Each structure stands twice: as C-alpha cells, then as structure tokens.
Design the sequence.
C-alpha cells in the first residue's frame, strides 16, 4: 500500500489501475482498487488533507475541497486555470455536444470560435476527435481526459444537467408529425365532403335538365 501511495503522491495526473499495478508491483487491477479503498480509509482516519478520487480514466490523489482557497493563494492556481467567459462558453458547448464541428459551435455561440478552440486545445482541454461525414469533412472536437481531471469528473455522465445537453428530437418530431397528420386528415375530409357536395349538385342539375327535356318533348 505504501508503494501505491507514493506513486499517487508524485504523479502529475490521474493514473489508470493498470499503470498503478505496474508501478506499485501489484497483482492486478482488483488489488489496486482494494488498496485504494484501504488507503482512503487510513487517510480519513488520520484526518489527512488528502483523498484518492477516481477522475477521468484513473485515480488521482487530491486535497480535500476545504483546502482549495488556501492552496489557490499559495500556488496561484486560479491564475493558471482561469478561462475567459468566451473560452468557458466554448468549452461548455464542446463538453455537452461532443463530438461537434466548429461550425456547429459557432452556430450556437453566434460568433467565430476558432481562437477559443485554439486556446482550449493549447491548455489540453479540447482535442480533435475525428472528422465529420459532411461536405469538406470538417474536424470534430471533444474534451480530453485532462478536462475530466481538472473538473473532478469520473466521466462525461457526471456533467450537471444543462440546456446544452442534446435532446433527442424524436419526441418533438413525432408530436409535430401527428399534428400535421391530423391536420392533413381533416383537410382531406373537408375536400372529400366538398367533392361529394359538388357531385350531388351536378347530379341534381343533370336530373333537372333531363326532366326539362322530357317535358318539352311531351
């Protein structure tokens, strides 16, 4: 357990269970998870300032939240991690809508986002996640494991609810389609009634003409 604690303490980022097993010469991932739980229990019992969290794709030793204000002043982390409002807005769109093209980001924001994406990629928060199948095959953007680590997320499923989250349009489409279908059916019925009325009026007119011809012949 001491080797595991040492590896987590000196690591600059999260370490996967497999990597931890290699560094601490442990049997497998199951033993790593068991020792992490034991180590967390020991840290809590000793009122330590540290706690091991599962972030991104691995484990990381972090300080408890109550020490954040003091540590921010000590290391000036806020200055290093601070993002401008446009950059944070772009990052939020990417995180909730990924994979997403730059054009789609700009459609949501209403402004050019090339520089914001460049800054986010330089900070290691956003990466190119592939290419879209549309014309020109534009790049698709997504978040990185570092994004999960910095925001203390295990996965993207841990993102808080937001209006930016994609909503499946199927329900809305279905409701609209049903409304349109009802309107079409009502319109068809009205047209059918009008056609039947026109046919009845035409039959009456033809019948009157025939009766008139018979009367004149008589």
Sequence:
């Amino acid at each position: 357990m001491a080797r595991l604690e040492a590896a987590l303490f000196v690591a600059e980022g999260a370490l996967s269970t497999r990597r931890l097993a290699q560094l601490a010469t442990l049997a497998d991932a199951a033993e790593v998870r068991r020792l992490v739980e034991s180590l967390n229990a020991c840290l809590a019992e000793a009122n330590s300032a540290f706690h091991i969290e599962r972030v991104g794709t691995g484990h990381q030793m972090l300080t408890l939240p109550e020490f954040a204000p003091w540590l921010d002043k000590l290391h000036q982390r806020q200055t290093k991690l601070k993002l401008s409002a446009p950059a944070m807005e772009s990052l939020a769109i990417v995180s909730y809508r990924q994979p997403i093209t730059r054009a789609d980001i700009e459609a949501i924001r209403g402004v050019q986002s090339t520089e914001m994406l460049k800054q986010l990629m330089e900070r290691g928060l956003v990466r190119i996640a592939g290419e879209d199948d549309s014309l020109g095959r534009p790049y698709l953007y997504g978040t990185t494991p570092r994004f999960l680590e910095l925001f203390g997320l295990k996965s993207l499923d841990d993102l808080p609810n937001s209006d930016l989250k994609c909503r499946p349009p199927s329900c809305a489409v279905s409701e609209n389609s049903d409304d349109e279908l009802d309107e079409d059916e009502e319109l068809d019925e009205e047209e059918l009634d009008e056609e039947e009325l026109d046919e009845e009026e035409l039959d009456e007119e033809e019948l009157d003409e025939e009766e008139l011809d018979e009367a004149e012949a008589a």
Q: What stands out?
A: The beta strands are 50-55, 58-63, 100-101, 126-131, 139-143. The first strand starts at residue 50 and ends at 55. The longest helix spans residues 170-217.
